[in-house]
């Protein structure tokens, strides 16, 4: 196991899918069905969709399709996803991790909309953070940094004093573009160059050290 890395922050910004909630089963089902309908290779599609809003993924995969059509297709897919919670579970350690953040500045920053994020967190048995930046909150999807910058602003914390938790290439790029340090969660994160990678949230310990500082002990002992 790697040695523990210690990071100090004033706020934590948390992605949802793949970071707090394991929704891979439903994401695979929905997007592979979509791939078949459009004659695309499902494996190649799955390399694109994690971390982005659906319409942003469609814009990458079908670059000649009108934006209006992508938005309509995305709305249908969000409804499908919100109705399908089969296999949605917490990422190991997520409940304890969120409990350890009680009273500390943190926010959810997700590409899901309000209904989907609410449903998935509930299905995984996780509480919703008080501050939430969802698809409705931003004009641009990850890898654009807008969501993370809005999360920092809502918490009243400078971007450089925030640590992002992310699993996807798009999310890690967004955190970096926002000027934040990034903890990668899971195998998918490892290839995208976060500051440190953990297998899951059992490998993160949170400590309030006073003066508004949060100390993160990240990785294996």
Low-confidence stretches: none
- SSE sequence, one letter per element: EEEHHHHEHEHEHEHEHEEE
Helix-strand makeup class: alpha/beta
Number of strand elements:
11
Number of helices: 9
Main sheet?
6 strands, parallel
Shape: globular
Strand order of the largest sheet: 6-5-2-7-8-9
Share of residues in helices: 25-40%
Radius of gyration: 17 Å
The multimeric state of the shown protein is: single chain
Q: How widely separated are the two ends?
A: 7 Å
Percentage of residues in DSSP E strands: 15-25%
Q: Could you tell me the mean pLDDT?
A: 94
What does this structure look like?
By secondary structure, this protein is an alpha/beta fold. The protein is 39% helix and 21% strand. α3 packs across α4. The chain is globular, with a radius of gyration of 17 Å. The mean pLDDT is 94.
What is the gist of this entry?
39% of the residues lie in helices and 21% in strands. The model has no long low-confidence stretch (mean pLDDT 94). With 221 residues, the chain is of the alpha/beta class.
Write the layout of secondary structure elements.
Elements: E1 5-9, E2 11-14, E3 21-22, H1 24-37, H2 42-49, H3 54-61, H4 67-83, E4 89-90, H5 94-100, E5 106-109, H6 114-123, E6 131-133, H7 146-155, E7 162-166, H8 169-177, E8 181-185, H9 187-190, E9 196-198, E10 204-210, E11 213-218
Parallel strand pairs: 2-5, 2-7, 5-6, 7-8, 8-9
Antiparallel strand pairs: 1-11, 3-4, 10-11
